[in-house]
Design a protein that fits this description.
The chain has 203 residues and is mostly helical. It has 3 domains: 54 residues, no CATH class; 82 residues, no CATH class; 62 residues. The chain contains 6 helices and 2 strands, in the order E-E-H-H-H-H-H-H. The protein has a two-stranded antiparallel ribbon. Strand 1 and strand 2 form a beta hairpin. The chain is flat and about 85 Å long.
Length: 203
């Protein structure tokens, strides 16, 4: 039963609710109900329940963004498998054989090259798995995925601003160059602000 009145907005909530269904403000929960906080069965039929359910609906832009992460992760995994395949000319074994057959290759260079190639493959694997995980997080509207987007887009903005000033400096104040490097800043800034303002939409 909706018997608990929210002190912030005045909406009535179920006695087992921890937060208000309307404004998400904390509610006082009786000690006997601690650990038993569950949404009421009929909460989704009232106006407050509908607002709460709508808050976690996935917008179309987030769906597209999640699919982009999924496709990036799958593309990375396919590329990794193709590189590691025995028939690939870019596999570590094939490249090692080519360097050995060339002759006159410095052993130190061969060792550094092999280590670098291994690092690239590991980075590709980690990046692909991370993209798949973040794609799932966005699809499920998880708040940790939103935080990940905020962090990555914030770093992207800082990096893009540094590149912008550097490009303007070496181009001697070219407006065309400045406008070109301003585009990624605007895109990253829009994504950052959208995810910052839609905190309530994520679980």
């Amino acid at each position: 039963m909706l018997t608990v009145k929210c002190p912030s907005c005045g909406s009535y909530n179920d006695e087992t609710a921890a937060v208000c269904y309307s404004c998400q403000s904390p509610l006082a929960v009786a000690p006997s109900q601690a650990g038993k906080i569950i949404p009421p069965a009929g909460a989704g039929t009232g106006p407050a329940g509908r607002r709460r359910a709508a808050a976690h609906e996935r917008p179309g832009c987030v769906s597209i963004y999640a699919l982009w992460f999924f496709l990036s992760g799958l593309g990375g995994m396919v590329s990794l498998l193709a590189i590691l395949g025995d028939s690939s000319a870019f596999s570590p074994a094939a490249l090692s054989a080519q360097l050995e057959s060339a002759g006159g290759v410095d052993p130190e260079f061969f060792r550094v090259f092999t280590a670098y190639l291994g690092f690239v493959l590991i980075a590709l694997l980690i990046g692909s798995v991370l993209n798949l995980v973040v794609g799932w997080g966005l699809w499920a509207m998880k708040n940790w995925a939103r935080v990940y987007i905020l962090v990555t887009q914030g770093l992207s903005i800082l990096f893009s601003v540094a590149i912008l000033f550097f490009s303007i400096a070496i181009s001697r104040g070219s407006l065309c160059v400045g406008a070109l490097y301003l585009v990624p800043i605007v895109i990253a800034g829009y994504i950052f602000l959208w995810f910052m303002e839609h905190r309530a939409s994520f679980r």
